[in-house]
Amino acid sequence: MTTETANLIEAPGARASMLRRAFAEKKLLRVAGAHDGLSARLAAEAGFDAIWASGLEISAAHGLPDVSLLGMAEFLSGAATIQRSVAVPVVADCDTGFGGNLNAAYTMMCYEDTGVAAVCIEDKVFPKRNSFVDAGQQLLEAEEFGQKLTTAKQAQRHPDTVLIARTEAFICGLGVDEALRRCHHYVDVGADAVLVHSKAVDSAEVIAFMDRWRHRAPVVVVPTTYARFSVREANDAGIAMVIYANQGMRATVRAVRDAWATVLAEGSTTGIEPHIASVKEIFDLSGMNQWLGRDR
Ligand code: SPV
Ligand code: MG
């Protein structure tokens, strides 16, 4: 399945419609973070329902921290590559919408052109810092962020594209009342789903939110710090989507570090050969046979 998209002609909004159907069926979506075609394919091949085009991963893949250093064009290029590489819906992490209201509108237009299913914009001030950076987290006023959502929604061309409003209320030390107030306002002005981010070590604040949200719109969570949070618990709480935003990159970093250390320590690659993918696996993942087939 990994390279099937190479020959696929998709109707505009096809993957957004897939995502909306999944939301309507109340099926919990398990989503993996990625930063390029290969990392996205590995996640799709593993069976994830969708791919998160992660700002943290795309930044790190450029050798940069996730503090708004890259511009929209670079994040967009990352998301477009991911979109081309898989057949499942792609949820694009669009940070703050890369600026003000007009930037958010332009973000919506450009990301829709790539065919991604969902655009996610967060309620922090531009330039933003990754949510796990302790200092310098600054929330935008809810009403101001609401205007950004409205502008983005007005720029949307396909009716099924999903606009996810992400609140960083918990990240900024505010409580469940403020998270709820913000998310209700975001849905009032047109958001199709909300992402409630948390850096707590357990799921208590996310569950407290769910208890009072009453399924008003689909809820997305990112259980990075509360890693014990299971799919079963997410299902029971009525969560629509769980994003494992960066574990793939973290697994890669550890594996590559170990491999290169072994090569230098042992003076050859013999020791790592049984533990690394074959060149054939790379050919398969990158669609070598399908591409050569075009030339026959
Ligand atoms: C990302 O993957 O870039 C995210 C999720 O936004 S987090 O890093 O947890 O903020
Ligand atoms: Mg991000």
Number of DSSP strands? 8
User: Radius of gyration over alpha carbons?
Assistant: 19 Å
Topology pattern, helix = H, strand = E: HEHEHHEHEHEHEHEHEHHH
Strand order of the largest sheet: 1-2-3-4-5-6-7-8
Bound ligands, named by name, code or SMILES:
sulfopyruvate, magnesium ion
Choose one word for the global shape: globular
Number of helices: 12
Low-confidence stretches: none
Q: What is the CATH homologous superfamily assignment of the largest domain?
A: Phosphoenolpyruvate-binding domains
Strand content: 5-15%
Give an overview of the whole structure.
This is Isocitrate lyase/phosphoenolpyruvate mutase family protein. It is a single chain. This protein has 296 residues and is of the alpha/beta class. The protein folds into 2 domains: 243 residues, TIM Barrel; 40 residues, no CATH class. 46% of the residues lie in helices and 12% in strands. The protein has an 8-stranded parallel barrel with strand order 1-2-3-4-5-6-7-8, surrounded by 9 helices. Strand 4, helix 6 and strand 5 form a beta-alpha-beta unit. Helix 2 packs across helix 4, helix 5 packs across helix 6 and helix 7 crosses helix 8. It binds sulfopyruvate and magnesium ion (MG). Magnesium ion binds next to helix 3.
